Amino acid sequence: MTALLTPPAGRITLKQGGGGRAMRALIEKLFVKDFAALPFDGVGVGAMDDGAAIKIGDQWLVITTDSHVIHPIFFPGGDIGRISICGTVNDLAMMGATDVLAMTCAVVLEEGFSVESLEAIQRSMVAACREARAPVVTGDTKVMGRGELDGIVINTCGIGLTRTLVRDNGLSAGDAIIVTGPIGEHGLAVMAARHGIELEGDLLSDVAPINALIASILGIGGVTAMKDPTRGGVASALHEMSSKSGVGIVLQESAVPVTPAVRAVGELLGIDPLHVANEGKALIGVRADAVDAVLAALRAHPLGRHAAVIGTCVTERPGSIILDTGFGRRLLAEPDGEPLPRIC
Ligand code: MG
Known about the structure:
With about 350 residues, the protein is α+β, with helices and mostly antiparallel strands. The chain has 2 domains: about 15-160, CATH 3.30.1330.10; about 175-330, PurM-like C-terminal domain (Phosphoribosyl-aminoimidazole Synthetase, Chain A, domain 2, Alpha-Beta Complex), CATH 3.90.650. It has helices at about 1-5, 20-35, 80-95, 115-130, 185-195, 210-220, 235-245, 260-270, 290-300; strands at about 50-55, 60-70, 75, 80, 100-110, 135-145, 150-160, 175-180, 225, 250, 285, 310-315, 320-325, 330. The chain has a 7-stranded mixed sheet. A hairpin with a 2-residue loop joins strand 3 (about 75) and strand 4. Helix 6 runs antiparallel to helix 9. The protein is globular. The mean pLDDT is about 95. The site of magnesium ion has 5 residues, from helix 3.
């Protein structure tokens, strides 16, 4: 009888899928330790980067995979189909692989799922593939019984080749941190939809493939690190980049682009946009001498119009984010996970 009364300490919680400290701890303890011990020549699972990379001749083959469980499946600005394509395309781009060679798509459906919804999701995936110039070339379909799954889960995998492999651990003191546009739109749009919050202004997810945007800057040189601030938001991604690179990051709060709609919903829900998922943005570390050229190239692209320098890497406090509020400085805590589960 005592077993039933004992709290389920040995059970997975939603927090462990939230993209923050809790998830990283689970992955590091359970998966990475053993997988990373298997013989492999390249950037593997132990690096916990946006994808893995295998040297082939003078190029790198980049591979990445992502499963999508977002709720609701249709949200302002996108749906589970669009995010399934864009999430994988963007993870490849963050490693420098901006030309997608091929993608896979595996769908798990719940018995009773609407065929009309599935058709809409498929149309959305194809449209995103065209935008990203990313072909889906193989896939898999499974159906589970009613109640055994909540509607639909989509897994995609992508591969691409690059001569310019970019990691998330290459920051040095003096590098600038650029964000490619306003933050928090995806997470707060989904949360607003989930909570039935009516808005005066538009609050749409930023979900978009940003491989062409990233391709426009890689030729310039001076890019030292990249990461897309998805689950856990900018705060989580910057913590990962700073700790892996062994630098501190001074983040200028007033320089971080936030739209009035995101600010309003964030305040209403008591959630800091820095902790919220983005699905069409990148954080880019850039050498000081290349900042102007990179910023100009980003701003010349429709998805980078509002790109901004938001921080600088420093030698002090490696692994920490020092938030400069304009009135003083404080450490920005690494989030435990996304404020709400099932955001992508
Ligand atoms: Mg990523």
